[in-house]
Amino acid sequence: MPTPEAGHVPGHRAASLAVVDPATGEPFDEAPDQRPDELDGVITRARRAWHGWRADPAARTTALCAAADAVEEAGDDLARLLTREQGKPLAESYAEIARTAARLRYFADLAPRTRRIDDGRPVHSVVRWRPVGPVAAIVPWNFPLQLAAAKFAPALAAGNTVVLKPSPHTPLATRLLGSVLATVLPEDVLTVVTGREPLGARLAAHQGIRHVTFTGSVPTGRAVAGSAAASLARVTLELGGNDAAVLLDDADVDRIADRLFWAAFRNCGQVCMAVKRVYVPARLHAEVVEALAQRAKTVAVGSGLDPDTRIGPVNNAPQLARVEQVTRQALAAGARAAAGGHRLDGAGYFFAPTILSDVPPDSPVVTEEQFGPVLPVLPYRNLDEAVDAANGTGFGLGGSVWGTDLDRAEAVADRLECGTAWINHHAELSLAQPFTGVKDSGVGVAGGPWGLYGNLRPFVVHRPREEEA
What we know:
469 residues, alpha/beta, Aldehyde Dehydrogenase, Chain A, domain 1, Aldehyde Dehydrogenase, Chain A, domain 2, 2 domains, six-stranded mixed β-sheet, 18 strands, Ald_DH_CS_GLU, oxidoreductase, Acyl-CoA reductase-like NAD-dependent aldehyde dehydrogenase, oxidoreductase activity, acting on the aldehyde or oxo group of donors, NAD or NADP as acceptor, Aldehyde_DH_dom
């Protein structure tokens, strides 16, 4: 069972936070609802632990490798708990745990490079790298463990300590992960805190935090940036996405339909870089709608603990209401549901996988991030029109182009205003690559060496050459 996080006040009966199983809509467990004033002690201890943790890179590498092993050993318990509170199919939970362990191993092997600058002056200039200090990692509910590791693995590898706050919708697997990692990491190097707001806002604004890394909505990201500005803390913000998939007129619909469907509907569509709108040449529109609708009508929807389930529930009641709202707005404006279009009867937060046709291009389901199992498919008359539409929102996280001529597809991909563009697939990331957004989709870079250096600051030493000493 998870152990209480650092910051718990002995003898104080902490308030509790009910955790709901989205497959039933009923609470099944609880987590501490920690008071914001408890953060002072947590962050003080994180800063004390930082001095020892930063001093021994070899020990950090060993500890992070041991952490990856510990995550894998606890995989069964972590996966089942993750599915209970998040809703995703158990196979996807196991994949998330595997990704968490892989990320720890990847960053354990990375180290910043010292660089000597030789510019003809009578001094040697050496650039070294130093950790920034305690890091606040604030994580959403769609990939609680994977996104947590995307933040704490590079921060720890760089020599920082981390205070990790999961969403109040999904605190349990993160608490368990913290307990697992506490068996191999020094005390207070990684601390998990759980609770409702204003806990996250207070964490982002705390004077003892030197880097705030946040994944979530654009409005909350703006608030986080404002809070961090008070202490001039560094911020990394991975915010919303409204990724467009542009099909070219030479696309092989039968060949790509399955990949395109799952690029939109994995994790019940609750993926920041999922395909959220599809632009199709008018002559292929009906064929694409039918191919996607056939899959939406036949895919197994249910509890993530059922081995036959491919799509689970929406994670929480407010998000379900949001998905229902944007779908109703589209239908009221003239859209047609080729599949789904409604909540499913019975308990839990289930929404039928939905393919929308004849959607007005200014409908919120197109212009905003729906973050659920709903996909609008829109026809276009010429390619310039499709690219303009794909670039026509405030988001710029990812995008994809689908076609047979790969050179032509890449040329179109180069025109997309986003941080990552895929060709004939979508939402696949290497641990070694940067991940970033443009426009409202984010600030800063995660992933690969860029993620490591985002948790470091340069330190320059000048010394005279021997003959000038």
